Amino acid sequence: MIETKHVDFYYSGFHALKDISMRMEARTVTALIGPSGCGKSTFLRLFNRMNDLIDDTRVSGECLIDGEDIYHKSVAVDELRKRVGMVFQKPNPFPKSIFENVAYGLRVNDVRDKSFIACRVEASLRAAALWGEVKDKLRESAFALSGGQQQRLCIARALAVSPSVLLMDEPASALDPISTSKIEELIADLKRDYTIVIVTHNMQQAARVSDKTGFFMMGELVEFGETRMIFSDPVNEQTRNYVNGRFG
Amino acid sequence: MKWSRRFVERIIEGLFTLSGGVTSLIILLVVLFLFREGAGLFTSPSLEKGYTLCVHASNLTGEIDAREVKRIFDGEITRWEEVGAGEMTGEIDVFHASELPRVEDEAVMPRVLEEIVGGRRGIIAFLPDEFLPAGESVVKRLAAGRVTPGDFFAGDEWQPTVSPAPRLGVLPLVTGTLLVSFFAIILALVPGLGVAIYLAELAGSRARGWLKPAIELLAGIPSVVYGFFGLVVLVPFIQEVFDLPVGESALAGSVVLAIMALPTIITIAEDAIRGVPRALREASLALGATRWQTIYRVVIPRASSGITAAAVLGIGRAVGETMAVLMVTGNAAVMPRSLFEPVRTIPATIAAELGEAPSGGTHYRALFLLGCILFAITMVINLSAEFIATRGQGKGEGA
Amino acid sequence: MNKKLKQSIAFATFRLLGFLVVGVLFYILGFIVYNGAGVISWEFLTASPEEGMSAGGIFPAIVGTLCLVAGSVAIAFPVGVMSGIYIHEYLRNKWVARVIRVMTNNLGGIPSIVFGLFGMALFVQAFGFGDSILAGSFTLALLALPLVIRTTEEALKAIPGSYRAGSYALGAGKLQTIFRVTLPVAMPNILTGLILSVGRVSGETAPILFTVAAYFLPRLPSGIFDQVMALPYHLYVIATSGTDIEASRPMAYGTALVLVAIVLVMNLLATATRLRLGKKTKMD
What we know:
Radius of gyration of chain B: 29 Å
Strand content of chain B: 5-15%
Largest sheet of chain B: 4 strands, mixed
CATH topology of the domain at 2-93 and 165-243 in chain A: Rossmann fold
Shape of chain A: globular
Strand content of chain A: 25-35%
CATH superfamily of the largest domain in chain B: MetI-like
CATH architecture of the largest domain in chain B: Orthogonal Bundle
Strand order of the largest sheet of chain B: 2-3-1-4
Number of helices of chain A: 10
Helix content of chain A: 25-40%
Number of strands of chain B: 6
Distance between the termini of chain A: 30 Å
Number of strands of chain A: 10
CATH class of the largest domain in chain B: Mainly Alpha
Helix content of chain B: 55-70%
CATH superfamily of the domain at 2-93 and 165-243 in chain A: P-loop containing nucleotide triphosphate hydrolases
Strand order of the largest sheet of chain A: 6-7-8-3-9-10
CATH topology of the largest domain in chain B: MetI-like fold
Distance between the termini of chain B: 56 Å
CATH architecture of the domain at 2-93 and 165-243 in chain A: 3-Layer(aba) Sandwich
Oligomer: heterotrimer
Structural class of chain B: mainly alpha
Radius of gyration of chain A: 18 Å
């Protein structure tokens, strides 16, 4: 379960997130939608503290995963990132073999047991619905895969370290429609085991895959609720305009 | 009006086109001239110009190769039996032109020579052409051997001014060059890479802001200044620390070259590291890797082709570096046996000797051929650096 | 915790390496400046060498280097800029462009001593220039050429296509566009490259050894067919083969400092040019 309480976020002088309070239940899919620059990606990146990598940023308020404040001094960032997997907008496999890509997260976390690694790699690739396509070429370069396969590989890579949360930052925006639908099916499968937060530009996609949807604008959470409600009968006027395609 | 402007424009555009090909033209000319001057080496006599080796007319020896000539005049071969081609026996009686008596009237010289040779059956004499007696004589000229490619490329002695038969083997020079350059890169690579990583990944923007230009500045300092520094600081230091008879050594050359190669290596390696896409770093960090794990498991492997190119280019620069090496390596043209002895590199040899080599002579041609070797080595190095760098660019373009 | 520790150790090592290397480089610079500063005086800069080059000044060498820089720039600049224009604005055949680019890079990678050999064979002997400013300038120009071509190309590349399109749309021809729009905008960057190549040319020794440099020539050149002394060669001579090496050491320190100062000034000038001219063209 993920929860934020009155979170504000600043890039040097810019107030990027304004007083966001939100609660995402375990084993659900939450979609974050909104126009470009509304802060939805920034919000997503709070949960694995990816924003720490940018100089001169500041966060206030509380950010809890399973009740623990992840911005507390005692939290080790790399431990947190192990628990919170992330899939990026563009597939970004490492210049390594398919196998090594998936094994990477285990290796950097000092897992040395070969049979365990092999086991996890297979399980993760199966979970990402990629195993059948790559099981005979695990030693080949990850770049030999198609874009859609690469993205599923990146999902497998994130799953290998057994996270409980999966963050997806527009995971299908760089893919063709067939690859996109495969990713969406995959999300529906993964929901059984993971808490998923997905940022998307594509409103049909949000409607298809998510249980709950949050609509962001200018750094504020305008409306948050059941996906069905957001798309059929939103409370807020701005949300209605956005989901009906008036702007954005 | 319009017509004349058209005309002028065509001329200017023609000039552009000509200039576009100018670098290719220069490289062609460099190859042409270097080879033209150098290739004559293998058709020129292996003896000093203007001199001939002579024996007594009764001596049946036909030709003596340059290596044997040198050993005879060095006193290493003392009997005719030891000379390869010929049936002559007995003690060898060596006579060098420098032993000729001074005479008032040069016209009597041929007679003097005949007397010298005629009186000694076992003689081998190195005599000036201009005074050799014409026609039938007791003085028999030996056919002059030519410098062979084998002598040149596989010879392990470089003594171009030894009389009567200069030795022009390039092995000591090539070995010296490669030894000094490779050791320089070994010295420079780790610190250079370390600084590149520091600059690209760790340094704050302020520190980077003044370090980068400072390092670029150091790349611009003339090599003669580095050489001078090496001469007054490094050479005495090395002499003292390693307790050597002289501080001028391969080691001194390598250290100076390493210092000179650092800016190149740092700049290129840093560019390569910074060129690694942000997405890759983020992916690694998002999996719980530390920054250091990300650097050595993802960033460095991805930047490896750029880093390799940096090292290769560094070697290329080191191989061709002249002045600094000339000033600190001691320039002894012998096969290097350790880093602590003086060595001589190809560029240093050219720089030190071309001024004294008579134009068009054997030595002169040999130096041009050395230039060809140097040109070929650096060309191969530069092309491979380019190949490595471009091959790396194609890698990892994702979807 | 284990991997945290590894990271701390690694990062500490890199910091240390960084400071160490930079320290060494700056030690060299500091050493030259410290030892040379005491030697520099008006007399040192304006007098001729005396007493076997262990006293007096380095004026003829300064003048010689200035002549060589001026000569080589006069040759390399126009040819290099035109070449850059051709490569970027005219050349459409990808294959030819690739060949030319590889050749230009390779020209930049040829050791300077090879240029010395080539200059001697071509300019000194084949063209009959003799050991002269002319032969030396041509040889040095070969070194500067790749740098000028590359900076010109980079400068042209940085100009947005819209500038050119705007000019064409007003009916300007290709050449007019180049001379009135493209070149003026690219000029600050081209000049930067030029200034840096001046720094490089003024410090080169190997190419001038056999094409122009004189061991000791205390008078000034009277024409382009004269030999001259030059700063880098002068430093080499008094550091290694002067009549009294110990006595001429201070002269050597002074000469080294002058050389370093030239490079320093050229670098600063290049930065200043980029900033100043860059601003001006933006405001236009």
